[in-house]
Amino acid sequence: MWRGVSRVKENSFRSIRPAYQHRMNIKGVSFNDASWIKPAGHIWIKPKQDWVVLPQGDLTYEGQPENYDALICAYQRT
After folding, report:
1. Which of 7, 27, 47, 61 is least enclosed by beta carbons within 10 angstroms?
2. Looking at the record's lineage, which domain of life comes first (predicted)?
């Protein structure tokens, strides 16, 4: 379904953005064993709990990134 202004096509395990239709975000929670997943970055960190510690140097965004170029580059390096 398309949700809100951001027009994200999303279900419980993945999302596709119109501007990046050739890419899909897969949520790690979708897998029984997600230990092999290495995040390219972290978005929506503003509401994270204080006890959540993100690795130094990782890409972080308090909310929705304006574009995904830096995240795509980080993903391609992993």
Report:
1. 47
2. Bacteria
Domain residues for the domain of 52 are 2-28+39-77
What the block records as the tokens of 16 is 């596709």
Q: How open is the CA angle 9-14-16, to the nearest 5 degrees?
A: 40
Backbone angles phi, psi at 77, to 5 degrees: -80, -15
The stretches of 1-78 forming alpha helices (DSSP H) are: 69-77
In a domain, residue 34? The reply is: no
Is 59 within a domain? yes
What predicted TM-score, i.e. pTM, was given to this entire model? 0.61
Q: With beta carbons less than 8 A apart as the criterion, state whether 60 and 41 touch.
A: yes
